[in-house]
Model the fold of this input.
Amino acid sequence: MTLADVAARARVSAATVSRVLSGNYPVAESTRARVLRAVDELEYVVNGPASALAAATSDLVGVLVNDIADPFFGIIAGAVQSEMGSAMGAESGRHGEKLAVICNTGGSPERELNYLTLLQRQRAAAVVLTGGAVEHPDHMAAVAAKASRLASSGTRVVLCGRPPIEDAVTLTFDNRGGARRLTEHLLTLGHRRIGYVAGPAERTTTRDRLEGHRAAMSAAGLDEGTQRLTVHGLYDRSSGYDATLELLRRDQALTAIVAANDTIALGVCAALRDQGLRIPDDVSVAGFDDLPFSADAVPALTTVRLPLHEAGARAGRLALGREPQPPGGVAMVRSELMARASTAPPRATK
Amino acid sequence: MTLADVAARARVSAATVSRVLSGNYPVAESTRARVLRAVDELEYVVNGPASALAAATSDLVGVLVNDIADPFFGIIAGAVQSEMGSAMGAESGRHGEKLAVICNTGGSPERELNYLTLLQRQRAAAVVLTGGAVEHPDHMAAVAAKASRLASSGTRVVLCGRPPIEDAVTLTFDNRGGARRLTEHLLTLGHRRIGYVAGPAERTTTRDRLEGHRAAMSAAGLDEGTQRLTVHGLYDRSSGYDATLELLRRDQALTAIVAANDTIALGVCAALRDQGLRIPDDVSVAGFDDLPFSADAVPALTTVRLPLHEAGARAGRLALGREPQPPGGVAMVRSELMARASTAPPRATK
DNA sequence: CTGTTAGCGCTTTCAG
DNA sequence: CTGAAAGCGCTAACAG
Done:
């Protein structure tokens, strides 16, 4: 079942069928109808690889995420994807639609590079890299190199939630500012002994949030001990749990714990409860991201809201070239403090 | 940068380079090395569309999910994808690797069909359909038709978590059995007035779980009222919240609420708390799926565990033809009751 | 507005 | 074991 078959049935040339299907060229209404009917009758579906080869571009858009099981990435990826299908009508066989494909790197630099190669091989129309980047120098150079190679071969490269690189449009997240305001909130409540559960050391997101926290602590003259009250782990629940136990070991008199994200914060809460400590009466807890479950946690989690859906949608539009690039190719996504019940003034008795 | 460039540099024919790269044909070790070096020096990356066209197959594997922001699907999709990259070595440019791409249908039948067409157009190597199917007759017929067309053109079709169809290998989930055991657990605790918050009416998952629940109620002679104490909504938190308010309106003396999944259960808990009801003292709550956050909820949520990661991984292997098909093309994934703190005997005073 | 004519870059018989 | 040659199905000038 090929274009030629359709052409024969519609009694036109293959070129005409191609023009009807891609819709980017004037075709007489009568012929167009005839072609469309033939397409229907034959249940013809364009051969993607063939057209990608001939046109030297494909309709694939790759979305790289660090962990698709984490709603943080699920929300962003879903939003990117929702921008692609907007015009998807009922008629099958037609094309012009982009196929956004989500690739799960698991946070591994090698897999990230591998997917980039895979997408380059597919001649993807665009690539969206989401979430914190790994800061290892070699890897950063490798990614930057791949990105410019992609860009120079016509693939649009969009970054969402990581630092800018050349040849890419970037949406950075206000991790530093948000983290800083969050810790300031705790400071304002009167906390002085604040533990921090950070993510993996080499991630940019981890570093930015930690810097924001430290900036707030420094400004309050609390450099001392801040270092000692920081524990690194993964961006998951069990790391939060373990880190909390470790923090408690280091300082029994802690009155607050800030987690690098909401998922970690969940683990922090679990550990605190298992230790017989009440939230926020004994220890205040705060997270970051404001994932859907955070507002429902008990007590509701104080956190920093990042408009993930909007950011993902915008990244998708940027990837399609449907939105003008921000000045300088970089735009920052603002974050917002969500003060809820998991944070309160420290107990006077402590 | 094409095969021909590499061939010229390695002083061999294009055919030889192709053979080295696909590795499915004997080539002298010395030439192979020469070719590989040329590939490296030129940073050559195979043109996917071109090779897909020539070979009439691509290395794309599509994974359709109803809602990628929901960890239920994130976990399955991540697991499918993790089976693909297993052999991904460091060398770029090489191929043979599959690219698993996740497509988010948002639960819309049209988008599901559209993605199927898109994947058919890409001549995908396999397609994995996950999660409950929409039971509208027309749509089921359309999906079945698409599936057999895909199958007949060499695309493997795998179903994960939905009822079997012809031309597809299927992994069904034990939704009915799990739901039944869950309600039995509540019955055993002494509950009689049990509310049920179901998912969207037309989903197979919704129906199966509801049937399991009703079967348990019937067996206990509790048909009466079961119908009245069932409310349908979406598989999300706010539906659970609203449904709970509605249930309470219908029967103030409810002692337990079963939710069609954990996310809904979260909303149920929130509503109950907002109404000043304690869990499980006043009302017991149960969910389904055992997502990661469920064990951490307060109180820990009683639910039915589905081995999502294993199921997804198996679906991935099936899609790659790396695992023998189960007898009859259908295998059932067992579920397991996880009795936790959110369920307890009803208050004697009620 | 429509047809003709070349390829796009790779795979794969078929010879050697 | 390697090369030559014939497409895979579609698109994009270029005429008409």
About this structure: Chain A touches chain B through 61 residues (CB under 8 Å). Residues 175-306 of chain A form a domain with the Rossmann fold fold (CATH 3.40.50.2300).
